[in-house]
Specification:
The structure is a single chain. The chain is 29% helix and 29% strand. By secondary structure, it is α/β, with parallel strands linked by helices. Strands 1, 2, 3, 4, 5, 6, 7, 8 and 9 form a 9-stranded mixed sheet that branches. β2, α2 (42-48) and β3 (53-55) form a beta-alpha-beta unit. The mean pLDDT is 88.
Length: 204
């Protein structure tokens, strides 16, 4: 079984321990081809992670960000980690996402996850995505994986329609791709969101 580097990952640059842990787990993952850090602090992030590349972007909600991601997504799959909240990947999380994305009709996947709250690990199940039930506050969780060709298609559509969203780039992307294939909910707990304030004071 050939472990191909099939994922390009986009996430916000952060400086704490928890973020470094996540970054290390991504860097050592056999599926990850390239990591792009979204940040205005190019020098700092390149010093912290010489193997990563940086993009001077500050939000996933701007159409320009989606366009930039589309330009740099050169692998079959694209992984977006959309919050600043620390996150811990579960065992086989990326493998499972790729498994689901490899189904011909799948265009985007998201998963159930855990949350650390008040020192307790709690389950945070997502709900199944129904076409047409597209509220802009639908809770997909922080980790979204796409078939890159569809993400690139959505960016192209927005370009053609001269849509320039400042706050709804990701939302518009989901609307576009929901029309071309299935957005799949993985009923497995694939990662843990860690509440910033719950870390030991020494880790903050």
């Amino acid at each position: 079984f050939n472990m191909k580097k099939t994922i390009t990952c986009f996430l916000f640059y952060h400086t704490d321990n928890q973020f470094n842990k996540l970054l290390n787990s991504l860097l050592s993952h056999p599926y990850i081809d390239q990591i792009y850090l979204l940040t205005g602090q190019k020098e700092a992030s390149e010093a912290a992670c010489p193997q990563c590349r940086t993009l001077p972007l500050d939000s996933f909600e701007k159409t320009g960000t989606i366009r930039q991601i589309a330009l740099h997504a050169k692998t079959p799959y694209t992984l977006l980690y959309t919050t600043l909240q620390p996150l811990e990947l579960g065992e086989q999380a990326l493998e499972r996402m790729c498994d689901y994305l490899s189904a011909p009709e799948s265009v985007m996947v998201y998963a159930d996850h855990y949350e650390w709250k008040e020192g307790e690990k709690k389950k945070h199940p997502a709900i199944d995505y129904q076409p047409g039930s597209v509220r802009d506050d639908f809770d997909f969780g922080a980790l979204l994986a796409f078939r890159s060709e569809y993400l690139i298609g959505a960016a192209g559509m927005m370009e053609n329609e001269r849509e320039d969203y400042r706050y709804a780039g990701l939302y518009a992307t989901r609307l576009f791709i929901a029309e071309t294939g299935r957005i799949v909910h993985i009923n497995e707990y694939l990662y843990t969101e860690i509440e910033e304030d719950n870390r030991l004071s020494g880790e903050k």
